[in-house]
Specification:
Two copies of one chain form a homodimer.
Chain A: E1 2-8, H1 16-27, E2 31-35, H2 40-44, H3 53-60, H4 79-92, E3 96-101, H5 103-118, E4 124-129, H6 145-165, E5 172-177, H7 184-188, E6 202-204, H8 212-226, E7 229-234, E8 246-250, E9 253-256, H9 259-271, E10 275-279, H10 293-311, E11 317-325, E12 330-337, H11 338-344, H12 351-355, H13 357-368
Parallel strand pairs in A: 1-2, 1-3, 3-4, 4-11, 5-7, 5-10, 6-7
Antiparallel strand pairs in A: 8-9, 11-12
C-alpha cells in the first residue's frame, strides 16, 4: 500500500480545498495518507501523521470553503531542508509526495525529486495545479483562476455601474487586480463589458509596456469621450522605466501592490480629475460568493486524477487540463512532466489574446459560468 | 392626476434600483412621472421630462442591477437652488417630489418643503430610505444596509480562512469597511464568526473610543493567543486624540479612508508583525453577488409604499420599516415625519448592541439570509 504525503502550498484559492477533497477521496482506503501542515514547512519539520477517518471527514467538510484547510503558506524550501524532508519520509517509509500549488510549488517538487534521486531514495512526485494568476505552463488553465476572474469581472461591472451613477462627483476609478507577472486576471475584468463605450476603458497588464505620457493621454481621452472612466491595472504592471510598485509588510519584506494608488496620484496631478483607486484584495482568492462552478468541478477532478496517477505509479508529473473544444466546451485531464513545467516558468497571455481581446473572452467563457447579476439581455 | 418628480441621491447601493422599480410600478398609469437625472442637480437644472413607456421598461430592467440607474451623485443643493427647483416645478405644474436617499437627501427634502411653503407653493414631499451605513433614524433599518453587511460578513469570513492558511507568512490582516459615523457595517463583519477563537478578533467602530496603546495591546494579545489575527475597522473610526483619516481625491476634496493603512503602519512599527491592510471598497455598495434577498424585497416594498403614500396625498414623510418581531421576522411599513428624521441625524449603534454583540447579530439575522458559503454545521 502506498504511503503518501499530501500538502497545499502558496496562496490559497476559493477552490483549492476542492482539489484536496478530490485527492483524499481518490486515495482513501487505497493508500495511507499523511497530510502535512503549512506546505513544505510541515514536510521539512517532520510533522508526519497518518490521516484517520475523523480527519478525512473534516477535510471533506471543506470542499466549498475558501482558504487551504491543511495550512499552506510561503516557505524557503532550501536544498538542505529538502534532504531533511527525504530523511523524514525515509523514517516513515513514505515514497510518494503530492502537492497542490503553482509555479513555485512545482519547481520545488521537481528539485525535491532530483535530490531524492541523488540520495538514492525512490520518490514518486505528483503536482496538482492551482493558481489564481493562471501563470502555470503546460495546462490549458489552472483551477482557482476562473473563480478569481469571475469575481473580478462581476465586481468591475458593478463598480462601473456605481461610477455611472456618481458622475457629477467623480470621474475616474482605478481598480487593481492580482497578477504578478501575467495579465490573465486584469484582462478578465472586461469580460462583462456591455459595449465599447462601457468601462473598463483601459486595462494595463504586465505584458504590455506603456509610458507615463501614454497612460495620461489614455485617461484624458476616455474621460473626454465618456465623462467618466474606469480603468483596471494588474499589480505586476509598471509604467515604462519604473519598477513594479511594492509595499513593505514588515522590516524589508515586500509584496506587490500600490500601482493603482500611483496612477491615482498621476491622474490628480496631471489631469485634476476626481479619482479613487482601490485594490480588489484578498477576495480575489477567497470570494466564495463568486465561485465558478466549472472551476470548482475541475479543481475536484484534478485532485481525483492525481490520486489515480499515484495508484498507477506515475511520477514526476503535474496533472493538467487539456482543452479539446471551446465552443462546446470539452476537456480531458492529462499530465505534463514537472521538468517541463518548471522550465516553462510563468506563462504570460498569448499575443493573440492581447491583440484581440474578444478571442480571450471566447476562450474564457466556458470557465466563467453565467454572470451573477441578471443584466438585461438587450445590454449585450 | 398627480405630476411627480422622482430621483435618487447619494451613494448607490446594490438594491436602490429595486426601490425605484417599486416606486414607478406603484405610480405608473396613475400619475405623470418626471424622473430626474443626477439627483437634486437634475431638479435644480430643470431637466424635467415625463417618463414614457420605453423609459418605464428600461427602469424595470434595472431591478437587480447595482448603481442608481437615474444617475445619483453628490450636489450642494443651496437654498437659492431650491427656490430655482420650485420655480422649475411650477413651470410644469408639478406638486410632488419623491426622493430615494439617506440623511443628506432627507434633510434636503425637508428644507425644500419649507422653502416651497415659504414661497406659497403647495409641495408634497416623500422620502424613501436608502443607505449602506444604516445611520438613518426613525426606521428599523434602511434598504441597502443588509446587502452591504452580507457582503462584508462573508468576505471577512473568507479572508479569515485565507489568513489561517498563510500563518507561516503573515500574522495580521486589517480590513476597513464603510461607515462614516456609525459602526453598523463594521460590526456586521463578525456575524459569521464560528467561535470566540475565530477572527475577526477586534472590531473598531466610531462609537467606541480606543487609545493607540490599547489598540496595540489588543493586536498583540490576539496574536499571542491565536498566532494570527484579523481585525476590522470602520472608515469613520479614529484613535483617541487623532482626526478621522481622509484622503484627497483631488485638490483639497476629501473622502474618508485610510485608517486601516494607518493601523498597519502602527502594527509594523510597534509589534513588527507581518501585516496587510485592505479596504473592502466600492463592492460594499454594489456587490450583486452578495445581495440579501430580504433586503432587495424590502427595497422594492418601500418604493411601492411611497407610491401609495403619494396617491393617498400624504406629505413631509419618509417611508419606514417597523419591525414587529425578530424571532419570526415580521415588519410593517409606515412613515416618520421628515422633520423628525432630519432632526435625528445620524443614528449610531445602540449601547445594547455594542455591549452584547450577540444581541446585534440576533437582530441582524433575518436581514442577512443564509451564509453564501455552506460552512459545516458543526462550525457554528
Amino acid at each position: 500500500m502506498h504511503k503518501i504525503v499530501i500538502g497545499q502550498a502558496g496562496g490559497p484559492t476559493a477552490v483549492i480545498n476542492a482539489s484536496l477533497v478530490g485527492l483524499v477521496e481518490g486515495l482513501y482506503g487505497k493508500a495511507k495518507i499523511y497530510p502535512v501542515n503549512n506546505g513544505y514547512q510541515g514536510l521539512a519539520h517532520d510533522k508526519l501523521e497518518e490521516m484517520d477517518e475523523k480527519q478525512f471527514n473534516w477535510i471533506k467538510e471543506h470542499q466549498f470553503v475558501p482558504g487551504a484547510c491543511l495550512g499552506s503558506g510561503r516557505f524557503n524550501f532550501t536544498p538542505e531542508l529538502m534532504e531533511q524532508a527525504v530523511h523524514n519520509m525515509k523514517k516513515h517509509d513514505i515514497h510518494t509526495v503530492v502537492f497542490i500549488g503553482g509555479n513555485g510549488t512545482m519547481a520545488a517538487l521537481e528539485r525535491l525529486s532530483q535530490i531524492a534521486q541523488a540520495m538514492g531514495y525512490e520518490l514518486q512526485t505528483i503536482g496538482i495545479p492551482k493558481t489564481v494568476d493562471n501563470d502555470l505552463g503546460h495546462t490549458d488553465h489552472a483551477p482557482g483562476f476562473a473563480s478569481a476572474a469571475r469575481y473580478i469581472a462581476q465586481s468591475v461591472r458593478n463598480i462601473v455601474k456605481d461610477l455611472e451613477a456618481m458622475r457629477n462627483f467623480e470621474q475616474v476609478r482605478v481598480i487593481e487586480t492580482m497578477g504578478r507577472n501575467a495579465g490573465w486576471l486584469a484582462l478578465s475584468s472586461g469580460f462583462l463589458r456591455a459595449s465599447s463605450c462601457d468601462g473598463p476603458h483601459h486595462i494595463y497588464i504586465p505584458e504590455v509596456s506603456v509610458t507615463k505620457e501614454r497612460f495620461i493621454a489614455d485617461v484624458e481621452s476616455a474621460v473626454k469621450s465618456n465623462g467618466i472612466t474606469t480603468i483596471v491595472v494588474s499589480e505586476g504592471f509598471a509604467l515604462s522605466g519604473t519598477a513594479k510598485v511594492e509595499r513593505q509588510v514588515v522590516n524589508g519584506r515586500l509584496v506587490l501592490g500600490g500601482i493603482a494608488n500611483q496612477m491615482e496620484q498621476l491622474i490628480q496631478e496631471h489631469l485634476g480629475y476626481v479619482v479613487r483607486s482601490e485594490n480588489l484584495g484578498m477576495n480575489q482568492r477567497s470570494a466564495s460568493y463568486a465561485v465558478s462552478l466549472q472551476d470548482r468541478k475541475e479543481a475536484y477532478e484534478v485532485g481525483k486524477q492525481a490520486a489515480q496517477f499515484v495508484l498507477d505509479d506515475m511520477s514526476s508529473i503535474m496533472v493538467n487540463i487539456q482543452r479539446q473544444s471551446t465552443k462546446c466546451y470539452n476537456y480531458t485531464l492529462g499530465q505534463a512532466s514537472l521538468t517541463s513545467v518548471a522550465k516553462h516558468g510563468e506563462r504570460l497571455l498569448p499575443e493573440s489574446f492581447i491583440s484581440d481581446v474578444s478571442e480571450y473572452y471566447a476562450w474564457l467563457e466556458p470557465l466563467m459560468g453565467e454572470p451573477i447579476t441578471p443584466y438585461p439581455a438587450s445590454w449585450r
